[in-house]
Amino acid sequence: MKWSQLQSASLESIIDWAQGQPWCQAMQVCAQDAKWHNEGDVWTHTQMVLHELPKLDPWRDLSPHEQSVLAFTALFHDVAKPLTTQVDPLTGNVISPKHAVKGEHLARAILRDCGCDLVTREEIARMVRYHGRPVFVMHKSDPTREVVRHSWLVNNRLLYLFALADFRGRRAKKNTRSEDDLHFWKIAAEEANCFDQPYPFASEHARFLFFRQTDPNLHYIPHENFSCRVTVMAGLPGSGKDHWLAEHRSELPVVSLDEIRGDLMIDPTDNQGKVIQKAREACRQHLRSGTSFAYNATNTMHMTRGRWLDLFADYGAWIELVYLEPPLDVLLQQNKNRGAVVPEAIIRRLADKLEPPTWAEVHRLTLLEG
């Protein structure tokens, strides 16, 4: 079933579709710790959560898009438990460490294969990743910082509503948590004016610094005196980054990993140490001279692009990031038409590890598909 059908399907139709999928069949035989999930396996819990959604008081007032985001968050929130579930050798408890992080990646892949649009897919994937956060916020040293941070990653109201459905869609042997824990998330977000919108920072630079500082001051208005502007391109090989730069930033000098590989005659499958070294020095030259420029590479993983963003931020640059993601079949064809073709196996491997950027990373973010 394609996304155009799934997003308008009833909850029962979504359940029927899911039950025929391999990832769902794995959930059906995945046990959970009875202390928290006395209802049984992961799929039983998932269905219970889905059925709790229409019982939420605000459900009928939600837009079709919001209902769809909640439904697929519920469907995928524990989808990676079969990949992570184990028995703790010390306690004998059934645990699923990092299932939310792995669930984000799995949900993204499933939704991509269904043809889900980029923005909705990432909204659901991030909801899956952070679905367990509300219940713990009252135990954080700075709850306000938590809800402010998440407001730029997910919709706090939808995350709260999902958490209610998740809490109610289970039978616990010992109830050591209550809905009051979840309500604290709602109260903290409302007080910070970010329950149903991203927190309104004084400027985009104030937001940028908030996510980069260990102890940020929400009310700090930073002085803006940028050394230059850096346009960072991100996307799989063949996504059209060169074309976008030529059309929209033709005036900028470009530091391109592909061009450096060509100059050094280094294949994409070879060791990239010399390529990275030369690229960093070229970037530093622009940064030292205060010259605005573009940095063009795949940058599809958070940790990898983070090293470059750190470099640009250290020099006081204003950073925009443009992420392109056409459909995979289109991208593979465009790659074949490139001068330097990247092996399809590498592209597919990169696609499996994809971590599209968020507003928490840069001053300005543009997501483009098609």
Automatic annotation (TrEMBL):
GO molecular function, one term: nucleotide binding
One Pfam family linked to the record: HD
Record flagged with keyword Nucleotide-binding: yes
The HD domain, residue ranges: 64-134
Coiled coil location: none
InterPro entries attached to this UniProt entry: HD/PDEase_dom (IPR003607), HD_domain (IPR006674), P-loop_NTPase (IPR027417), tRNA_CCA-adding_enzyme (IPR050124)
Keywords carried by this UniProt record: Hydrolase, Nucleotide-binding
Stored PANTHER family: MULTIFUNCTIONAL CCA PROTEIN
Name of the protein in its database record: Phosphohydrolase
